[in-house]
């Protein structure tokens, strides 16, 4: 059915449904209202690392503590495999430190690890209703639920956002800031320039806009 619908969209020229990206201002608002609980500490790390790394949700939940290394420049995450990594060589993603301690993805990850007492294995884990951290790896669907939980608190429609909103948010925000195609593709791991340019068009729609400054 999925293949049929994809073929139908191509034939009819219907664009696939796209979830909205999370902007930097909205991400800051989200982080500001996350409670200082253990699950809040985890969710903060998920959102900030997911955004900064432009990770697919499967990549994000697939990260182990052993894949992360703090360097003088920031933190590296060694992805062992990815959606477009047919040779399974993995790729190294650099996470720069945030300008603000409250929104620094590296600080958020370190705070989560310390609070949850995680020294090895899955970085992001399931928690029970009593707030206890298990050894079970968080699912990709759970990442989507984390995103929806907090965008709802901002008054946005939860149906418009998902786990991909973090990844697309980084790409569109980087494009709006004038980052190059190459820089964006290095972070997202995209192989297709066509796909990335969709984000760039969305992010740069008001940058060097032909209708701007015409005296209207």
Could you walk me through the main structural features you see in this protein, from its secondary elements to its overall organization?
The chain has 216 residues and is mainly alpha-helical. It has a single domain, classed as Orthogonal Bundle (hpI Integrase, Chain A), CATH 1.10.443.10. Helix content is 46%, strand content 11%. The protein contains nine helices and five strands, in the order ααααβββαββαααα. The strands form two sheets. The chain has a three-stranded antiparallel β-sheet with strand order 1-2-3, with helices on one face. Strands 4-5 form a two-stranded antiparallel ribbon. A hairpin with a 2-residue loop joins β1 and β2. The longest helix is centred in the N-terminal third of the chain and has 16 residues, at 38-53. The N and C termini lie far apart (49 Å). 32% of the residues are buried. Mean pLDDT is 84; it is low at 8-16.
Can you lay out the helices and strands and say which pair or pack?
Blueprint: H1 2-12, H2 24-32, H3 38-53, H4 57-61, E1 68-71, E2 74-79, E3 91-95, H5 105-116, E4 125-127, E5 133-137, H6 140-153, H7 164-176, H8 181-188, H9 193-203
Helix pairs in contact: 3-5, 3-7, 7-9
């Amino acid at each position: 059915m999925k293949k049929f619908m994809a073929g139908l969209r191509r034939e009819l020229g219907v664009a696939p449904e796209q979830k909205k990206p999370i902007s930097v201002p909205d991400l800051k608002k989200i982080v500001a209202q996350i409670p200082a609980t253990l699950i809040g500490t985890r969710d903060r790390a998920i959102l900030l690392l997911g955004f900064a790394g432009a990770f697919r949700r499967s990549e994000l939940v697939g990260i182990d503590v052993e894949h992360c290394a703090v360097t003088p420049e920031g933190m590296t995450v060694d992805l062992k495999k990815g959606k477009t990594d047919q040779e399974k060589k993995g790729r190294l993603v650099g996470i720069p430190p945030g300008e603000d301690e409250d929104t620094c993805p590296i600080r958020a990850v370190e705070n989560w690890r310390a609070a949850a007492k995680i020294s090895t294995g899955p970085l992001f884990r399931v928690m029970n209703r009593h707030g206890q951290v298990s050894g079970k790896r968080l699912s990709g669907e759970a990442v989507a639920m984390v995103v929806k939980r907090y965008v709802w608190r901002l008054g946005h429609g939860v149906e418009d956002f998902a786990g991909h909103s973090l990844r697309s948010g980084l790409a569109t925000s980087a494009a709006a800031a004038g980052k190059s195609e190459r820089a964006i593709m290095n972070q997202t791991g995209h192989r297709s320039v066509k796909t990335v340019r969709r984000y760039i068009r969305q992010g740069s729609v008001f940058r060097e806009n032909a209708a701007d400054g015409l005296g209207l």
